[in-house]
Amino acid sequence: MEELFKKIVNPNNPKILAVGKNYVKHVQEMGGEEPPKEPVIFQKPFTSIFLVDKPQVLKLPQLGHEIHHEIELGFMISKQGKNIKKEDWLDYVGGYFLALDLTDRELQAHFKKQGFPWDLSKGQDLFFPISNLIGKEKIEDPYNLTLELRINDKIVQQDKTSSMYYKIADLICYISQFMTLNPGDLVLTGTPHGVGPLKQNDQLNGLLKQDDTILARIDLQIQ
């Protein structure tokens, strides 16, 4: 147990960070008017990761709550940094990925109403379906990508990453003022509009596209 403890209490261990309210139309569909004055940062646990490198089945929690889909572009930090300058952002990006930030919307609303943190609404098991890593050399411009999510062949979320309010440079600079970024840190950049509930037997197809090229995909059958 001592060896396990020493392994865990290591400030160089990676973390999963995410950004809320980073697409204007999503802010509006959630009842707001404009993105916040500073990025809204929260964390997801590693136990929520669900690598989807082939079609998979996703079992919803048995609580009976409404679980919402949020398709997102993510990136991985390549090296350690603190107080990183915006102009140096690309030096710290090791690659990109496609992900779903699944959200227990009922639980989130419950905690928000009380003014409490809503980690449990974001961090449940399987609430972070993620694609394989895309080398950054394969992406010409991370702000010229298309995020798309289809449910039962109907497009429910689709937008260009250029619609991102706080860009990747902004996020790396802002977060690193407070937290040291470590190699292997995963960062989600927010979801476009069109979020909504998942239902049993839904077929999800998430795509990250560069022009007509599919860079990554997430294919899930909901149970």
Describe this structure in words.
The chain has 223 residues and is an alpha+beta fold. It has 5 helices and 16 strands. It has helices spanning 2-8, 24-29, 105-114, 119-122, 168-178, and strands at 16-20, 40-43, 49-51, 56-58, 67-69, 71-77, 93-100, 103-104, 128-130, 134-135, 146-151, 154-160, 186-188, 196-197, 203-210, 213-222. The strands form 4 sheets. Strands 2-1-13-6-7-10 form a 6-stranded mixed sheet, with no helix packed on it. Strand 11 (146-151) and strand 12 form a beta hairpin. The longest helix has 11 residues, at 168-178. The model has no long low-confidence stretch (mean pLDDT 95).
Comma- or semicolon-separated keywords:
six-stranded mixed sheet; alpha+beta; 223 residues; 17% helix; 5 helices
Radius of gyration: 17 Å
Order of helices and strands: HEHEEEEEEEHHEEEEHEEEE
Overall 3D shape:
globular
Uncertain residue ranges: none
Largest sheet data: 6 strands, mixed
The level of helicity is: 10-25%
Which range does the strand content fall in?
25-35%
Helical/strand content category: alpha+beta
The number of distinct helices, counting runs of at least 4 residues, comes to 5
User: Roughly how many Å apart are the termini?
Assistant: 37 Å
- The side-by-side strand order for the widest beta sheet comes to 2-1-13-6-7-10
GO molecular function: acetylpyruvate hydrolase activity
InterPro entries: Fumarylacetoacetase-like_C (IPR011234)
Organism: Paramecium octaurelia
Domain Fumarylacetoacetase-like C-terminal: 15-218
